[in-house]
Amino acid sequence: TEFYKDPGKAKVPPVPAVPVGALKVVMVGDSIGDNLGKGLRTWAENRTDVVVYDLAVPACPLSRGHDRRIGPDTRFDVDPSCAWWDDPDSDRNRAFQQFAPDVVVTQDGINEVFDRRLPSWGDWRSPGEPQFDSWLYDEYSAVFDRWTSAGAQVLVTNAPCGDWSRSFQEVANPQLRVQSVNLTYEKLPNVTRADLFQRVCPNGQYSDQVEGIPDARPDGFHFIPEASAALATNWLGPLVLQTARSAPGPLRPRA
């Protein structure tokens, strides 16, 4: 149900207070991004050196464009409010600017794997098709360049595997779509990459167990709070700290 929530009704959480000198981290993306954002908040709640602000919106990709579909007979349009980062009058954009993050963490991969159609295309396109891949690259470049030019570093978590037999059965070749979107992330300059796919998909295969926690992805996609917190504590939180200390590039956790 998280995938089908109305983004237009998503409330913007209050901008958190920031202790002097604390690292400011914002989470953006979709409902899986919201899972990771809540995990990062749990990781940071007893720290005085990090503040996490979760601005992820269920059902929202970062890419702009309204027309989207799950399959030939099922539309899954993108709400205009999802383009908040490109709207200076958006309350979410204003909150983002007020918080002025040092690190932006992103996760919207699953919401990017569906067919899209732009007015200039005239027909539907899918991940793996050159026109789609070039467009998605340009969309990410636009938003990430905006954030990095303001002084933030961007940490991109790629799309995880999913159990597509439980949701979105109409989607053709879902694994290839995920691979294609993840290849787009690999090509982006001036960002740091975190391989969520590798972290939660042992040997490239779906697993309900995450960080040793059973039944961690009950719908085949989203993470339960315990799994999100464990991911943040064991993996994503340390990567955020590394991102703040280092130049963008491929990132590996330190021992």
Topology, element by element:
Layout: E1 23-29, H1 31-44, E2 50-54, E3 67-71, E4 74-75, H2 91-99, E5 103-107, E6 115-117, H3 130-149, E7 153-157, H4 174-187, E8 192-194, H5 196-200, H6 225-245
Parallel strand pairs: 1-2, 1-5, 5-7, 7-8
Antiparallel strand pairs: 3-4, 3-6
Give an overview in words.
The chain is an alpha/beta fold and 255 residues long. The protein is 33% helix and 14% strand. The chain is built from 6 helices and 8 strands, in the order βαβββαββαβαβαα. The protein has helices at 31-44, 91-99, 130-149, 174-187, 196-200, 225-245; strands at 23-29, 50-54, 67-71, 74-75, 103-107, 115-117, 153-157, 192-194. The strands form 2 sheets. The protein has a 5-stranded parallel β-sheet with strand order 2-1-5-7-8. A 3-stranded antiparallel β-sheet has the order 4-3-6, with no helix packed on it. Helix 1 (31-44) packs across helix 6 (225-245). The model is unreliable at 247-255 (pLDDT under 50).
Structure summary:
It is built from 6 helices and 8 strands, in the order βαβββαββαβαβαα. The protein has helices at residues 31-44, 91-99, 130-149, 174-187, 196-200, 225-245, and strands at 23-29, 50-54, 67-71, 74-75, 103-107, 115-117, 153-157, 192-194.
Which key features would you list for this structure?
single chain, 255 residues, five-stranded parallel sheet, three-stranded antiparallel sheet, 6 helices, 33% helix, 14% strand, globular
Distance between the termini: 38 Å
SSE topology string: EHEEEHEEHEHEHH
Gyration radius, to the nearest Å?
A: 17 Å
Percentage of helical residues? 25-40%
Report low-confidence residues grouped into runs of 5 or more: 247-255
Instruction: State the total count of DSSP E strands.
Output: 8
Query: Can you tell me the overall shape?
Result: globular
